[in-house]
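Need residues for this backbone.
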């Protein structure tokens, strides 16, 4: 190995396939995954506000 990034995928019959990866591709994937995490968190927040609104109300007694 000369330091190249490789992806390894399992194939049927316990064989493996490798292919080269580019850092730019990993950076793109990372950004896409982060965007999905953000969308999921926003969706979760909206759902919780609708289904458990009491959690999000300010306590006036403080």
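Answer:
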């Amino acid at each position: 190995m000369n330091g190249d990034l490789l992806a390894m995928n399992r194939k049927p019959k316990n064989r493996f396939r490798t292919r080269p990866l580019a850092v730019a591709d990993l950076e793109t994937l990372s950004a896409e995954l982060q965007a999905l995490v953000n969308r999921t968190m926003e969706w979760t927040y909206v759902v919780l506000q609708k289904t458990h609104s009491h959690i999000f109300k300010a306590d006036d007694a403080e």
